[in-house]
Design brief:
By secondary structure, the protein is mainly beta. Helices cover 14% and strands 38% of the residues. It contains three helices and 20 strands. Strand 18 and strand 19 form a beta hairpin. The radius of gyration is 21 Å and the shape is globular. It starts with a helix and ends with a strand.
Amino acid sequence: MIINNISILNFCKVRLAFLSLFVLSTLACTLFTNYPILTNENPTEIVATQTIMPVLISPLPSPTTSPIPTDEPTIVAEYNPELEFDFTDLSPYHRAMRPEFVDDIEAMAAAGASRYDIEVEVTFPESGEAQLAGKELVRYTNTEAVPLSEIYFRLYPNLPDYGGEIMVEEVSVAGTPVEPVLEAEDSALRVPLIEPLQRGEATIVSLTFRATAAPTVNAGYNVFSYSDQTLAMAGFYPAIAVYDDEGWNIDVPPPYGDVTYLDVALYQVQLTVPEAMVVAASGSQVDSQINGDGTKTLTLVSGPMRDFYIAIR
């Protein structure tokens, strides 16, 4: 009887601890998250949400060489003017934050958070599958204690239990084309660097990609799928994998739980969809443009986020 009482007491303590953690996480998200920005033309057109992780970046291991500089990281190699994007302008991200937390953007940038600029167009052919065509620029800073000779990207739609497909067509590093290599059952893409990226240095990777979201299946995650006229776009873009104490984390996850394991980053996304579609997305909408061909383009930005999600109906 004593053993049973102790077991019950321990169980209750675990439940209480879990509940406390949930409440604290909810309060943190409420404090840090900006309210959605809606268009004046149609205030119900988009539902924008954002969640900020309370712990934004894990502490860096003690460096064996010089520490990361406090100013802007050094860009290695020559950047292609055709891929021009001003990653130093942090003002668009401010609109995704409450005024009292705008300084968090500068703090994240100084800490080396990656910055994504993504353009993606979504079409719905008669085949019954949703098709995505996109291009991506991402600025990556080496915040590790060792030089890096490659960068890995996760291709989550290629996981066996996602039910979709993503194909990267072209890759360049600092404007120079490179030959990537698929690994981890095609769910990871190894991008070789032109020269080792030293601690504190940054480079810019450009990728073009295509993806297909198939109808929902009764197995796996069902977070990248198209069914009942609703498109779920979890992990729709090539995302930089996490580098941890075991190196690049590119293991194929099991078909349950939270598959996403990514570092916190900043996002700007231009999404083109049929004009009649309703969009719910991470971050905040800062612009909407009617293109005159039956489509519209929404500009979305985020504060610090682990990934970027879009749903379309």
